[in-house]
Amino acid sequence: MKISILDYGACNLSSVYNSFKNLGIDAKIINSAKEIIDSEKLIIPGVGAAKNSIEFLRSQNLFYAILELIEKEKPILGICLGLQMFSEKLYEDGISKGFSLLNADVVRFNNNKKITHVGWNKIKITEKYKNFFQLENNSSFYFCHSYFLKFHEESNLIIASTDFKLNFPSIVIKNNFMGVQFHPEKSQANGLKIIEKFINWKP
Amino acid sequence: MYKRIIASLLLDKKKLVKGINFKNHKIVGFPRTYCKSLGSQMIDEIFICDLNSYNDSRIIPDYKTLSEVSSSTMTPLTFGGGLNTLDRIKLSFNSGSDKVYLSSILHTNISLVEQTAKIYGSQSIVAGINVEKIKGKIKILEDKEKNFFNWLNEIENSGVGEIKINFVDREGTSNGFDIIDCKEILKKTNLPIIFEGGLGSLDQIKDAFDSGIDSVGLGRMISFEDNNIFKIKQFLKNYNYEIR
Description:
heterodimer, A: 203 residues, alpha/beta, 8-stranded mixed β-sheet, 4-stranded mixed β-sheet, B: 244 residues, TIM Barrel, 8-stranded parallel beta barrel, 37% helix, 26% strand, globular
């Protein structure tokens, strides 16, 4: 199985790489459009600023390669910003256009106050997906973000949600795309369950 | 949201050390094994500050040790100590840091925050303020003329994601925090604040949480005394704090 981790110039790449290594998977760090298209499974990590990162993806022709991989129905895991990129518009440092796979925008927790959601928080997971991930309700994960995914309307793509100031989506699944707002690579035992699930996932 | 118990570790020539008031360092352990064990005890985060590059910015931060630590634990990792250029910050992220810790450099080049945030986002930057109490006033270690609360405000506006306040004169003393100061600081900013320096007993952590503090950095307490993370967390759970 060829699992690739996308290097787009920002990110905590080696943290993500190591979490796969802990499960015996030697993932490949990639940075070209061709390598994206050839991936069997792709991870898009997420320590980065939206505008800069998306501009980078576009300038290197990686943006369209990711869209092509979505079309090819290969499993993709987006982490934090890697999830947010799949929205329509991201409002960080101005406005950036995302992959528009999700009927949502990415907005700040509060436009007037500087707020960071950082630390461990719980997720509320839908009954159906408890088994899928082998996770209990209120399982804890490590979050680090000031923007969140806001769906335009109620959506059954939201598999889990988390409370911080308001209720926001923390796991989203659409067809071959799985996105998490938290950092599974930094969430100890629970994080491993997500990564393990992604490794074995056949959407 | 859970309260955060953060291990605050100092790196000195590839070993972890701890001392009092930045002096008299004793060896605590080897970074890789020590952090791995903290991770398995479910520590919430680990902060590592490279003392050598912190004290002399010509010395290159120990990215190799950072990378070894990062590959040994799936715990959030913040690295700092002499990160005074964007290149050093990039190398820290490339070596497995999840957040970077900037402190002294903020006094001479606060624009580094903006440059970093543009690439990695604000949430990836923790600003540090080293303070001590002089004649009843909070003073900044690096610049005693600066007004502390103005500086706090300036840092908040510079675009960092969180702030760590280090009570340098309390470090290693086990005297606890000055709760009145902490409350005052919490009132002045919306960013998450980590307090560190002086915690020496379980009751003092409890007092800190009672006063509205969400995140504490522990150094000496987990390094030399008969405490481990399990014990600390269990004690706090018994008082019904949100502890993971």
